[in-house]
Write a structure and sequence with these properties.
single chain, 221 residues, seven-stranded antiparallel β-sheet
């Protein structure tokens, strides 16, 4: 009888410990209502609030205690609210604007969720005028390690050995959502141009191409 009682007490203690580590309460930073949430990693802290609220106060302007509270709120509440839907799925949108730095010359076209893919979660597409292509190429090569553009067959792609050399975007916001998420970026262009007679030819000067394209993908590895 004593063994059963000890087992029940131990089980209750384990459940309470799990709840303490993985369930929290947060205070919404605009309307101040309180709600439960599930933590993405175990921490002893239970109550989360934002000392910043809806003000423009920066971390450097906060006392040490408030700064620590704001950092925890940003990680566990703010980032999750901004980048995920109510069911925890990633928001699909301007991925460069959300997770990285987007050059002003890039024009966002669309974002698609890849529900039939085992690893690709979403894919954002952008276009860039041919006259600005070299500037953007150099930026993506320097910033994200993307391969340089080479002319192959009928257009430009990031590689000349039969495979693409995508750049890697390291996003702290993405890691906080799921450490298995990675984001890659690629660029390409089609050299086929059509004249007034409906005839196609290859244009080898990419500055004369209307648009080249940039693709950003998020993978779940």
């Amino acid at each position: 009888m004593k063994t059963i009682k000890n087992l029940i007490v131990t089980s209750i203690a384990i459940v309470l410990l799990i709840l303490k580590l993985f369930v929290g309460v947060y205070e919404e930073d605009e309307f101040f209502y309180k709600d439960l949430f599930v933590k993405h990693r175990p921490v002893w802290k239970t109550y989360f609030y934002s000392p910043r609220g809806m003000s423009d106060k920066t971390l450097s302007e906060m006392p040490k205690k408030e700064k620590r509270e704001q950092i925890m709120y940003d990680e566990f509440i703010l980032n999750k609210k901004r980048y995920t839907t109510s069911d925890g799925a990633l928001n699909c949108g301007d991925l460069l604007e959300m997770y990285a730095e987007k050059p002003t010359e890039l024009e966002f076209i669309k974002c698609e969720k890849k529900t039939k893919s085992a690893q690709v979660l979403c894919e954002a597409s952008y276009k860039i005028a041919g006259k600005d292509a070299e500037k953007i190429e150099n930026y993506l090569v320097d910033k994200y390690g993307m391969g340089k553009l080479y002319f192959t067959c009928c257009g430009w792609d990031t590689g000349h050995d039969g495979s693409r050399h995508d750049g890697n975007i390291h996003s702290q916001e993405l890691v906080l959502i799921n450490p298995n998420y990675i984001m890659v970026i690629a660029m390409w262009g089609d050299a086929n141009v059509e004249n007034e007679k409906g005839e196609f030819r290859l244009e080898f000067d990419r500055t004369k191409i209307d648009f080249l394209y940039v693709q950003v993908r998020i993978y779940d590895l």
